[in-house]
Amino acid sequence: GAVVSQHPSRVICKSGTSVKIECRSLDFQATTMFWYRQFPKQSLMLMATSNEGSKATYEQGVEKDKFLINHASLTLSTLTVTSAHPEDSSFYICSAPQGIYGYTFGSGTRLTVV
Amino acid sequence: GIQVEQSPPDLILQEGANSTLRCNFSDSVNNLQWFHQNPWGQLINLFYIPSGTKQNGRLSATTVATERYSLLYISSSQTTDSGVYFCAVDPDNTDKLIFGTGTRLQVFP
Predict the structure, then answer these.
(1) Taken in order B2, A99, B81, B55, is the CA torsion positive or negative?
(2) How confident is the model at residue B56 (pLDDT cuts 50, 70, 90)?
(3) With helix as H, strand as E and coil as C, how does chain B read?
């Protein structure tokens, strides 16, 4: 089945630094990738949609200059959290739609900003 | 925007018990899915079920689109069923999912 590999699984960074999260589709071409964040014991909230070869679209309230998304190839989408602050600490998950077969999710990245 | 509410928020079961999880949504949708998030955070597809009934082993799901709800049935629960169950809807046919509030299930031996 379709697999999305997400790295890193955990990252701790200092406040003010940037962190890059990668999602790679291993056995299919992902023209679209969705990025979600999930705070502890809460639901998933859609942050943005990345489309290969075009600019990402962001959901209302998500700062596009803070959460930089790049989808330069059909197998790689990246999310960079710039100038991270403690309130950015969260679980970030990517997801690729698979039509009637549902969605393939990355394993998630737990970001802790200290 | 559309609201997606799940009940109950928490559920504790002994192994072998059956349960029903409910998902209510406030507007018509093109797509409804059920997912299981395991204790390590990985999300797994359970059902793509915009309407009707489907079964997969001990799990089954029913969506009544006209009444804007879906049910997930878990029979003979096992400890490996523990985790959070989410329903999610695509209201605009854009593949963007709006996730429900989730039901946290704990199954004890």
Answers:
(1) positive
(2) very high
(3) CCCEEEECCEEEEECCCCEEEEEEECCCCCEEEEEEECCCCCEEEEEECCCEEEEECCEEEEEEHHHCEEEEEECCCCHHHCEEEEEEEECCCCCCCEECCCEEEEEEC
Q: Write the pLDDT tens digit of every residue in B13-40.
A: 999 999 999 999 999 988 999 999 999 9
pLDDT in tens, A31-44: 999 999 999 999 99
Single out the residue of A107, A67, A111 nearest to residue A89, CA to CA: A111
Strands A109-113 and A90-97: antiparallel
**For residue B98, which residues of chain A lie inside 8 Å, CB to CB?**
46
Cβ-based interface (< 8 Å): residues of A facing B: 32, 34, 36, 38, 41-46, 49, 91, 93, 95, 97, 100-103, 105, 107-108, 110
**CA of B100: how far to CAs of A8, B3, B88, B90, B104, in Å?**
27, 8, 6, 11, 12
